[in-house]
Structure formats: C-alpha cells, structure tokens
Amino acid sequence: MPAPIDKLQSSFVFSQSSLQDYVDCQRRFQLRYIQQRAWPAVEAEPAMDNEHFMQRGLQFHQMAHQYWLGVPKEKIAGQVKGDKILSRWWKNFAGSKGFEERNFQNQKPFPEISLSAPIGDFRIMAKYDLLVIQPEGKAIIFDWKTSRKRPKREWLIHRLQSRVYPYLLVQAGAQLNEGEPFKPEQIEMIYWYTDFPDQLARIPYSPKQFDEDQAYLARLISEIQSMGEGEAPLTEDERRCRFCVYRSLCNRGVEAGPLEEAEGDWEAEGGFELELGFEHIAEIEY
Ligand code: SF4
C-alpha cells in the first residue's frame, strides 16, 4: 500500500468549496485534498433521491448556460418536459422579470466563466455561473442555487463562496474590464434560488470587505500549508458528519443523514449546504 500523501501538492488549486471544507472540518480537508482518500459512501439518504437532486442541479446549470449562449427558452423547456421539478425551476427562471432579455441589453454576460489568481504558494480559482458587466462598469456575479430551502442572507454572507467570488473578480477580472481591475465597490453578488425566484439574496462588495477577505484567505492558506503529518482535528459539530462520506472512517456513524434534514436546517447555526456534493461536481466537471 502506498504511503499516504502528507503535504498539499504545490500544483493544488484552491476553490471556495475546498476552503469551505477546511473551515467546516480540517480532517475532511486532509482526507479529501491532501491524502486524496476516496471513500465509497453516500452523503445523504435516500441515496437515489440525493443522486437525482445533484443531477437536477447540474442539469439546471447546463440549461441556464444554454440560455445565456442564446438558445431560446422554449427550446430549453422542451428538454425537461417529463421532469416536474426541473420544469418548475425552468418556469421560474424563464418567467423571472430579472432575467428578461431586455434587462441585459448593452450588458456583457459571461456564463460559466472561470477565473484564477495566485494566492501564497498556490492558486485559487472560481467558476462563476454568470458574470454580467454593466455599461457603467458594475459587475454582477450571479449564482444559481437549487436547494429546496433558502438560507438567510446573513448565513450566505459568511460562506466562503461569498468571499472568494468577489475577491477573485477584483484580483483576476481585469481582462473583462478593458484591462482595468474592478474596484470592490463595483461588484455585487446575487444568489438566485430556483424555488424562490423573487427572493434574490444581494450581497454588495466593498473595499473594507476586500481587505478583510484578502487577510482571511491568506491566513487560511497559510494554516493549511502548515498542517502537520498527523491526523487533523475532527469537527466538533458532529451534525456535519451525518452528511460526510468519511463518517465511517472517522467513527462518526455509518448511516447517512436524511436528505430533507441536510438540505434544510438553515436556521440553525452552522446550517448545512446540501449543494455540497453538487458544488464539488460543478467545479470539477462542468
Ligand atoms: S466524518 Fe466528520 S470528522 Fe470525519 S471528515 Fe467528515 S465531517 Fe470531518
């Protein structure tokens, strides 16, 4: 058996989901990204529902991508006629006033665009569902969310995604702004939920937040770089383990938690994001 890898490889590229893993549980980060341990377990039960949930999330993102590439809404709707949930999501998207074509005249939409920049000895990347550059120079980051419950804005603000995405747009977005880096105050992030089409979560960015994010991300990466070879600390919040594939390896139970619960406990401190599995797939495969 090969010796376990004990250091992060220098070619490693950080993302919001890998950093969120570190913040949620250092052991999970170590197992997933440093030791690269594959562990065959489902994240939530029923496994089939969870699988369908992730597949639908992926398909919705592909549909939205097609729309921004110019495929007519009706043609896209035809692809999912037999699927009630996807049809509902698409109806919500297609019927949303916010996404009417006339709203985007003279604006530059960049769907499914990736940006990356150096950070410490590594790189950090983000894949944006949609970036829209407005004529007056404002940059809007849209992110589609397919969870059945909508978290509070305060919860979203503290997610790594809400910090990494605008930060990276400042650091690496000059190519989209005629060679000029975006100023933090030009940037806004909007989460759009497929089942809550009128409840946008808008998070404006600012120079102060950029400075805080820069310091925070540098500190996280330096901490990760200095992780020792021994077993990293397991999360103290054992609720996380119910939806983590490594739970049997960590002696934190065998059965996966129920999909309903994982997806929805937004009100509780440290609510779980059941798009977790999907976010990993999305960053890698699509
Ligand atoms: S099972 Fe729990 S302790 Fe183990 S890696 Fe997953 S979240 Fe961390």
Keywords:
six-stranded mixed sheet; 8 strands; alpha/beta; binds iron/sulfur cluster; 286 residues; two-stranded parallel sheet; Lambda Exonuclease, Chain A
What is this structure's SSE topology?
Elements: E1 13-14, H1 16-24, H2 26-34, E2 44-45, H3 47-68, H4 73-78, H5 84-95, E3 108-119, E4 122-133, E5 139-145, H6 153-157, H7 160-172, E6 187-193, E7 196-204, H8 207-225, E8 257-258, H9 259-264, H10 276-285
Parallel strand pairs: 1-4, 2-8, 5-6
Antiparallel strand pairs: 3-4, 4-5, 6-7
The chain binds iron/sulfur cluster.
How does this structure look, described?
The chain is an alpha/beta fold and 286 residues long. It has a single domain, classed as Lambda Exonuclease, Chain A, CATH 3.90.320.10. The chain has helices at residues 16-24, 26-34, 47-68, 73-78, 84-95, 153-157, 160-172, 207-225, 259-264, 276-285, and strands at 13-14, 44-45, 108-119, 122-133, 139-145, 187-193, 196-204, 257-258. Strands 1, 3, 4, 5, 6 and 7 form a 6-stranded mixed sheet that branches. It has a two-stranded parallel sheet with strand order 2-8. Helix 1 (16-24) runs antiparallel to helix 7, helix 3 (47-68) runs parallel beside helix 5 and helix 7 (160-172) packs across helix 8 (207-225). It is globular. The structure holds iron/sulfur cluster.
